[in-house]
Specification:
Double Stranded RNA Binding Domain; 26% helix; SHC Adaptor Protein; 189 residues; 9 strands; globular; four-stranded mixed beta sheet
Length: 189
């Protein structure tokens, strides 16, 4: 399992001790959910955070056959942020197992992210319009109820794009101001 854990550091230097600590503890997640294919842990330092308690950030993303689970926590201590995120992930896994013990799809679930470091500026100093980040991911067919549950499990507060298996189309689920959900069903015109 240790080779399934990938640790990435941003805006900080990752020590061997911290890497070993993170990988050892993250590898234990497979005890809770055996179908895990990979675990990505991103540790970062946000020096621009207003509160010292928000400067250390730990994100954990777990991918497996038909599911993606994600948590993010902030603290003043890197190990503390990671430990809190790990506990939160364990709770998400237990919730997920209770509702979807056997996932759907072909077992492949991947996201590819491309970040752009420098923003282009024209001769006047104005920012040029551009796409700053691209994501590619495999959509697993699911029902509207499963999309709501995935939106909750992933921690997406605003919207969730999914392939509706019942209607054979890509749709967008979003949270409305009053706490209910809305569904955008695109029609090609």
């Amino acid at each position: 399992m240790a080779n399934k854990v990938e640790t990435l550091a941003r805006n900080m230097r990752l020590t061997d001790n911290t890497r070993e600590y993170v990988e050892k503890k993250a590898a234990k997640l497979e005890r809770h959910l055996p179908g895990i294919d990979e675990i990505n842990v991103e540790l970062s330092h946000n020096k621009a955070a207003r509160s010292a308690g928000d400067r250390q950030v730990a994100q954990i993303t777990v991918r497996g056959k038909g599911f993606i689970l994600r948590t993010e926590e902030r603290a003043d201590d890197l190990h503390g942020a990671f430990d809190i995120a790990l506990e939160k992930m364990q709770r998400q896994i237990e919730r997920y197992k209770g509702k979807h013990h056997h996932g759907r799809g072909d077992g492949r679930s991947a996201a590819e992210v491309v970040d752009v470091d420098e923003l282009p500026v024209d001769d006047t100093g104005e920012l040029l319009p551009m796409i700053a980040r691209r994501k590619k991911f495999i959509m697993i067919p699911m029902s509207e109820d499963e999309a709501v549950e995935q939106m909750r499990l992933l921690g997406h507060d605003n919207f969730f794009v999914f392939f509706n298996a019942e209607k054979n189309s890509i749709q967008v689920l979003y949270r409305r101001r009053n706490g209910t959900y809305g569904l955008i069903e695109p029609i090609i015109g």
